[in-house]
Predict the structure.
Amino acid sequence: SQTIHQWPATLVQPVGSPLSLECTVEGTSNPNLYWYRQAAGRGLQLLFYSVGIGQISSEVPQNLSASRPQDRQFILSSKKLLLSDSGFYLCAWSVGVGGADTQYFGPGTRLTVL
Amino acid sequence: DQQVKQNSPSLSVQEGRISILNCDYTNSMFDYFLWYKKYPAEGPTFLISISSIKDKNEDGRFTVFLNKSAKHLSLHIVPSQPGDSAVYFCAASEGGNKLVFGAGTILRVKS
């Protein structure tokens, strides 16, 4: 069966510090991978998605970037965090080439920027 | 531009009764719809989905109804249980793998 891991679970970082969040998927090959952010009291906002190694699409211009160095690894980064980067970050995976494509989420990372 | 809207921020239901969560969308090109359940500090869990070629899909206590002419879908939970208390998100996609989410509805099931 497929599993998705995210770490760390929680993170407190000062403004201006770098960020690296990691997501890995097991039990599937060539998944589509996604990064979402949920701000307090808000829905899920798609930040990045990837259909393959090295292929990243950005949905929202911002202070963040994503990379996919391996098939089942997805990394969310920032060089300098802003207060507005605080939120709950979720990684998700799916398989499929369009059409009915259900996404499955990881446990999330709670990021607080002080 | 909110393409997927959940206009009720919260809903309170008595245990054993029916919970009805609603979702409206504006993009007529959406062809796949999903409901997710989320507990605090956890990732969303997939509940049920429906393709635009159907108007109903049922899975145990959960049924999703789709009214394409009204651009409206709903999730029915019968009977509601205290463990159903969570935030429910509806989501939609247009011929691909990018999902657009609503803002969520908090469901509280009272025992």
In short: Chain A touches chain B through 27 residues (CB under 8 Å). The two ends of chain A are 38 Å apart (CA to CA). The first strand of chain A starts at residue 3 and ends at 7. The mean pLDDT of chain A is 91.
